């Protein structure tokens, strides 16, 4: 059995979306759509490069890194690639060279989930760490037109065969080769992608539910990436499943933080559950983390809180 733990945070500076979008050349009408329909008001911003942001404090100096057998750095934008190499070299030093390291951008926003699946299949290896850091330091990474505004965040996931706060239950992946062009695909192809996006997320979630086959009383928290509330409300309506609670509380204050979204939202969800928020007053039985990467990569990771830790939701 694979166990999972994580740590994550976002940049401290919060920038109004008006500022971000005006700098990218958008008019007031577009800003109003983003704010009111997609429910994004501000995003965390770092003025540093991914390398500087990731290592500006002790975030990546956790003891777990030194004992890791395998260590990956995942990120979304290919523009980050040179910084990814720098991060890998620094991580190698932090881990004292004990682990085998590699980096991945292959599935864009779904890269972290893909590497989680890769690592959990190597269950004989007891210590495996995945570090993610994406920052929107270029215009192409700051905005996904018509969908969201991006924020800056970092996270690390620890996989262990002995202990952790969560049990890894399932991984699902659906890939659509027709859209491998991503941001550079032809307009007609991209139009098809946009029209079928929600249906493909629905298909992914239904596949994940079929894999775990929950009993009718099970409560399942859907932990989506922070594209926008509007899209997730439409997906929730399409599914029409009363067992599912969609948690979109991270969208307004964080925007889309690429591969770190799931772990930012897990932390927020835990905090709200402990505080007795009406929508998550009881500890979910499963956490279904869902993401989609530009280029036709749709992935989910299903987690279950370890029994020893479930009481913490009610303290």
Automatic annotation (TrEMBL):
One of its GO terms (molecular function) is acyltransferase activity. InterPro entries: Thiolase-like (IPR016039). This is Beta-ketoacyl-[acyl-carrier-protein] synthase III C-terminal domain-containing protein.
